[in-house]
Specification:
Elements lengths: L22 H4 L8 E4 L18 E8 L2 E8 L2 E7 L4 E3 L1
Antiparallel strand pairs: 1-2, 1-5, 2-3, 3-4
Amino acid sequence: MRRSKGLRRDTRKLLQSEGKLKVNDIIKEFNVGEKVAIVINSSYHKGMPFRRFHGKVAEIVGRRGRAYIVKFKDGNKEKLQIVMPTHLKKV
């Protein structure tokens, strides 16, 4: 039997649902230069970052629509990711 190769494989514990999605999570505001933690909320699929970036601390660089552009280090590389505010938490 073949093994799944999807984006959300091996995430049973990591992406366990945190209950209902709150309106305040969707309309959170952040300022450019602010530090945030990437904490994936699995009940909201839009703007969800890749599972490897769960728990990383990032810096807000800008906005794209309702989402935020965040910059963080992954090993030696700096990466940019477009993330919805439901997946971000102030540090």
